[in-house]
Amino acid sequence: MVRANISRIKGEISRLCAQIKRDPAGITLIAVSKGRTVEQVKEAVDAGATDIGENRVQEALLKYNALRQTQYAERIKWHLIGHLQSNKAKEAVKFAELIHSVDSLRLAQEIDKQAAKINKLQDILLEVKTSPEETKLGLSPEDCIGVIKEAGALKNIRIQGLMTIAPLVGSPEAARPYFKQLKDLLDSLNALRSTPYALRILSMGMTNDFTVAIEEGSTMVRVGRAIFD
To answer: Is the pLDDT score of 136 beyond 90?
Structure first.
């Protein structure tokens, strides 16, 4: 089932990219394994999912450690996509190749501090709140410029782009404005040369709306239920 689901989703991405004239190689499919077993992660990797996303540090570490001494270790890129508390940064830098959910300068500074202790350059994304929901976390678009300038000066983190979570809306099409807003923000930050290098990653789109997110410029989609259920 997992193999068939991944094949179907990759096919859908390829067909969509052909329509909108994008290279499907520029879209990273992240298999979100929150609540799934180590065996299910193995099944996903065997089916071609090289990028695995976890929401919680503790759960991610259990799976990371279980697979660290196996043939799967070198085949997996681990992503931390859920909210990260500053006191968990020390553990997060041990396994995460990319931390998607940096929502404050304070958190960026703590990640930088913990990454320095293990001599690591930690790739991160800034999480942006593109919708008015009170429950949503993230930087306001207006705060991004200041945070990027300060966080970009830190020596042990590298800002690679932006992430957002669209609100729960009635249809994928209704999520489009939130994805467009993030793409416009990324373009603005690059035009302002907020970092010495181009910000290239847009992490946006999940099971219900990843096709619309890709149409609006997403380079990473985070898919869980459509893969594992």
So the answer is: no
Per-chain mean pLDDT for the chain: 95
The CA radius of gyration of the chain, in Å to the nearest whole number, is 17
Structure tokens at 132: 């008015």
Q: Is the pLDDT of residue 61 over 80?
A: yes
Q: What is the C-alpha to C-alpha distance for residues 57 and 45, in angstroms, rounded to an integer?
A: 20
Average pLDDT over residues 83-91: 97
Give ∠ CA 116-117-119 in degrees, rounded to 5. 55
Q: Which residues fall within 8 angstroms of residue 97, CB to CB, at 6 or more apart?
A: 77, 78, 79, 123
Tens digits of per-residue pLDDT, 143-194? 999 999 999 999 999 999 999 999 888 799 999 999 999 999 999 999 999 8
| Residues pairing with 201 in the sheet | 161
CATH match for 2-228 among 3.30.460.80, 3.90.1150.10, 3.20.20.10, 3.30.1360.10: 3.20.20.10
| CB-based burial, 45-65: b 16+ in 10 Å, e otherwise | bebebebbbbbbbeebbebbe
Query: In the structure encoding, which two tokens stand for residue 76, read together?
Result: 């997996």
Quote helix, strand, coil % in the chain, to nearest 5: 50, 15, 35
Taking the C-alpha atoms of residue 35 and residue 224, their distance in angstroms, rounded to an integer, is 10
